[in-house]
Amino acid sequence: MKDITHKIVMIGPPHSGKTTIANYLADATDSASGEYQPTKGVRILEFNANVGQSYKTVDVQLWDCGGNPQNEMCWPALARDAMALVLVAPSHFEDSEQQFLEMLYLRFGAQHGLKESQCALFLNKLQGADSMVSNVPKMFSKIKTEIVSLEEPSTIRDAFQRLLGSALQVKHDEYQKGENQIFGSG
Questions:
Q1: Is the pTM of this model over 0.85?
Q2: CA–CA dist 26, 62 (Å, integer)
């Protein structure tokens, strides 16, 4: 039987560090000059990730989506069939970014049937940025919020593993429920 690849979408406002986080998770190196280069459309990174106490390894496709609103026409296609959503924002963000994050959550998570446990908000402490952390919008009160930083890379991997574990549990529960309905035991 073919292994299942789990699609996870990562999106957030421009300049929030999505690509840097994606590269870290996928152990990918970026040959960029260190200058900011916005992601145009989407980058798809494939890698194996450990999950849970048993450190089961699963195949992941991480869709690093450009956060520019000019890409909005493509977003429904990018969100389709995702099993989890990672919203990335700077740890201190403006009101306009909050509204943008809320819209992204609705467009990528809620409209595609993802449960709160399949979504996470990564507040990225960017190098040289203010260490203050913004208040999390009320809309995200049921979504796991993680403070991550490349200066403490384990925060990124641990947060990602927790999200992946939660999303896999949701998928397992849905599968069990369907199976029980088919066989009449639930």
A1: yes
A2: 8
